[in-house]
Each structure stands twice: as structure tokens, then as C-alpha cells.
Amino acid sequence: MKRILLTGQSRAGKTTLIERLRGQTKERVLKTQTLSFYSEGVDTPGEYLENRQYYGALITASMESDIVGFVHDSTVLKTIYPPGFSSIFTKPVVGIVTKVDCADNYSEEAEKSLKLAGASKIFFVSVFTDHGVEELINYLSV
Ligand SMILES: Nc1nc2c(ncn2[C@@H]2O[C@H](COP(=O)(O)OP(=O)(O)OP(=O)(O)O)[C@@H](O)[C@H]2O)c(=O)[nH]1
Ligand SMILES: [Mg+2]
């Protein structure tokens, strides 16, 4: 399985997703305080994307992964990803739109901004309903 580094705003659902990829079903995850390395992926705090001074740490951490996932909460309209952001990484970048089970859903806008940021493929997932999770796991498995 490819090892994926997840970045995205605070509360975007990165840790919940990583736990699912790890086969864990925790009802509650704690706020991520620092980089967390697992064989399935690398979890990062939202602050690493929100504050530019951490970009270097994200780039360094991505060296330990095969692929980078730009995570975007579908319930949030505003994007944090600058256009072309994928170019700071030397690894392929995919987009992951989370929480698609929620009624307030800006998935289309999220897809557009993730593509603009340079994501080559976009996944739509909900860890709560498991929508799209299998597709992501299959993608990471080949
Ligand atoms: N409705 C819904 N909520 C979700 C889903 N995935 C995560 N959440 C909720 O979103 C909130 C934030 O999830 P986290 O996984 O902690 O988010 P994070 O991106 O790791 O946040 P930081 O560690 O602060 O960067 C939690 O209350 C989760 O239960 C989902 O698929 N659907
Ligand atoms: Mg987290």
C-alpha cells in the first residue's frame, strides 16, 4: 500500500481518515499536535498548512511518503490551498473531499479548488458512512 501524507485545515478530518486507513474505528480522535508517522500514512496538524512557516516541515515529512493527500472539508466553502500548491511537493498529489455525509456540502467547490491546487485525482469520502473509502484504499493499494 502506498503511504499517504495528509495535509489540510484543522478539523478537516485527517486523523479520522488515517485511523480508518489503519483499520481503527475510534469514535473520537484528539487534535493532532505534531507529525505522526504510521506505516499507512503520515498525519499532520492542520496548523502546518495554516501557517506558512511550517511548509518546510510538510515538505520534509512528505519525503517519507509515496503520495500527498490534500484534504478539504466539504462543509467549508473557503479554500486554504494556493493555486499550484502541489508544486512544492516532489510526490504525486491527490485531493480528498471529506464529510460528504453532511447536508451542508460544498463538494463541487472543493473539487475545483483542489484541482486548481494541482491535485491530479479527487476522492469524495465520508468515514462516518464509509462512502468512497474503499475507492481510496484501492487506489493506494496499487
Ligand atoms: N460528519 C463527518 N464528520 C467527520 C468525518 N470525519 C471526521 N469528522 C469529524 O470532524 C472533526 C475533526 O476530525 P479530525 O480527524 O480530528 O480532523 P483533523 O483534520 O485531524 O484536525 P486537526 O488534527 O486539528 O488538524 C471530528 O469531530 C470528527 O468526528 C466524516 O466523514 N463525517
Ligand atoms: Mg488531526
Evaluate the radius of gyration: 13 Å
Low-confidence region ranges: none
Tell the overall outline. globular
How much of the sequence is in beta strands?
15-25%
- Helical stretch tally: 5
Q: At the first level of CATH, what is the class?
A: Alpha Beta
Query: How many domains, in number, for the residues?
Result: 1
Query: Mean of residue pLDDT?
Result: 96
- Largest sheet at a glance? 6 strands, mixed
What does this protein look like?
With about 140 residues, the protein is of the alpha/beta class. The protein has a single domain, classed as P-loop containing nucleotide triphosphate hydrolases (Rossmann fold, 3-Layer(aba) Sandwich). The chain has helices at about 15-20, 45-50, 55-60, 105-115, 135-140; strands spanning about 5-10, 35, 40-45, 65-75, 95-100, 120-125. The chain has a 6-stranded mixed beta sheet with strand order 2-3-1-4-5-6, with helices on both faces. Strand 2 (about 35) and strand 3 (about 40-45) form a beta hairpin. Guanosine-5'-triphosphate binds near residues 8, 13, 45 and 126.
